[in-house]
Write a structure and sequence with these properties.
The structure is a single chain. The chain has about 475 residues and is α+β, with helices and mostly antiparallel strands. The protein is about 30% helix and about 20% strand. The protein has 13 helices and 23 strands. A five-stranded mixed beta sheet has the order 3-23-22-19-18. Helix 2 packs across helix 6 and helix 3 crosses helix 11. The two termini are about 30 Å apart. The mean pLDDT is about 90.
Length: about 475
């Protein structure tokens, strides 16, 4: 019998009386008619499919170089069409506001002049690139690709947890999750009515082509630049390049010649028009950023600044990933778009503020503490689950470098049924929809990537911390 941890958590599939919620009814009518031995076999088949497909990731700092399989759960997370419409509108609104902010902050800085965002939070931020000041990318688009992390709480409402616009990752897992489920249960999608996510690479190619600096949008050459096979997301880099018919390159494959970025081909050196970069800002160009970088291309930024190349996402986007900047995004939406936020932020305490730091120190056992530039679940403290020693250690970190941290309430993340050896169990989940922005439109992938904390009671969904993924179904209208 499926049962929730406690009534503190909203379960998306079942009420506390174990009544199936409406979006899940068709699915569980089907599921309850399946033989347990058939489901066990399907679960093993899914694991084999991931292994054969090479759907892996690396964990930085681990003692082994062996890649790990992404844990996959075959019970889908299901979202109603009506609920998805609100998410789609909210994500679209958010990525437009973020792009307006990036355009503003590297040019006129009107939002600072209006005393909405404090100057010091920009000025002292390592993610703010002075090299981008006074420069506008082709068509004014900075964040071509965005991943917006959402959570659902006990009130059954979605909140934005953080924004990812520097080098957002995970979309290949979304696509492979769908492919796996369609291999396992080919007839199920038509029976239940699920919106297709497999068109994402086509939209990505379209958005990138529309961002080209060339007047003619056809026959552009797109390249995906990667740090190589040792990068934690190399599978994704190779997968997306293949899906788009783009070149997969490393820095050593490229040169700046005749004022353009070029790649050597069997026909000689040919021009790259759009560079979908999967390496961080500092490694892009040793002449502009980190002089010791061997991953980028000398002179790349000079080509970019002369309008002969589009880089997606634009260098300098990382300032919008900053978890202190995050707290100002509802005000940005109002400032740039004249609208109220459709999706709410989680309450955030900025430790750089003395009064807020005092509150955080006094209530640290109830809060989640995060590094401003942290990612992957690293460098954080979940107060209610931390030991006294861990809390004291973190207090010292906060007092020593308060500007490096923010704090948020420990939220009651929703749960979804997850397959296990003992049957279905509730596990906490989040959601990362992917949004593609051009000057003409925003495409939001229907559903996105659901990440699931596979350890009982854990609130950390990152794969680097033991989390897995599951397919996300948005019901068709």
């Amino acid at each position: 019998m499926y049962s929730n941890f406690s009534q503190n958590f909203h379960d998306e599939a079942f009420s506390f009386q174990n009544k199936t919620r409406l979006p899940y009814k068709k699915y569980f009518n089907w599921f309850n008619n399946q033989k347990p031995k058939d489901l066990i076999k399907k679960n093993l088949d899914a694991h084999k499919f991931f292994e054969v497909s090479g759907i892996t990731f690396n964990v930085y700092g681990s003692n082994t170089d062996k890649e790990k399989l992404i844990p996959f759960d075959m019970i889908p997370r299901i979202i109603s069409f009506k609920e998805w419409q609100k998410i789609e509108r909210g994500v679209t609104q958010r990525v437009r506001a973020i792009n307006s902010f990036l355009n503003d902050i590297y040019n006129n800085q009107e939002i600072i002049k209006a005393d909405i965002v404090p100057l010091e939070i920009i000025q002292n931020n390592p993610a703010f690139l002075s090299q981008m000041i006074g420069f506008t990318p082709p068509h004014g688009i900075y964040n071509h690709i965005s991943g917006i992390d959402l959570i659902k709480t006990e009130s059954s409402k979605f909140y934005v947890l953080e924004d990812n616009v520097r080098v957002p990752s995970g979309v290949s897992y979304m696509l492979k999750n769908r492919e796996t489920m369609m291999n396992l249960f080919p007839d199920l999608y038509g029976e239940i009515g699920v919106i297709d996510t497999r068109v994402y690479p086509r939209h990505l190619s379209r958005i990138l082509n529309n961002s080209s600096p060339n007047r003619i949008k056809s026959n552009n050459r797109i390249a995906v630049i990667t740090a190589g096979i040792n990068n934690s997301a190399f599978f994704e880099h190779a997968f997306l390049a293949d899906q788009m018919g783009a070149e997969l390159v490393e820095g050593e494959d490229l040169r700046v010649r005749d004022g353009f970025l070029k790649i050597r081909t069997i026909y000689g050196w040919e021009k790259i028009d759009i560079l979908y970069r999967r390496i961080d800002d500092e490694f892009l160009d040793p002449l502009t950023f980190n002089e010791n970088s061997l991953l980028g291309v000398p002179g790349l930024i000079d080509v970019y600044r002369h309008g002969k190349l589009t880089i997606a996402n634009a260098p300098g986007c990382g300032i919008a990933d900053d978890k202190a900047i995050y707290s100002y995004i509802p005000k940005m939406i109002k400032f740039y778009l004249g609208e109220n936020s459709i999706l709410n932020n989680v309450e955030t305490y900025k430790c750089a503020n003395k009064n807020e730091l005092k509150y955080v120190i006094e209530n640290i056992s109830k809060l989640v503490i995060k590094e401003v530039h942290g990612s992957g679940g690293y460098g954080m403290l979940v107060g209610p689950f931390a030991s006294k020693n861990e809390i004291e250690t973190f207090k010292n970190k906060l007092l020593k470098n308060p500007h490096k941290y923010i704090a948020q309430p420990t939220l009651c993340l929703s749960t979804c049924p997850t397959y296990s050896k003992i049957g279905l169990v509730p596990r906490h989940v989040d959601l990362r929809p992917f949004a593609l922005l051009s000057k003409d439109d925003v495409y939001v992938s229907p559903g996105g990537l659901t990440r699931v904390a596979l350890k009982k009671g854990s609130l950390v969904v990152n794969s680097s911390q033991g989390g897995g993924t599951k397919d996300t179904w948005v019901m068709s209208k």
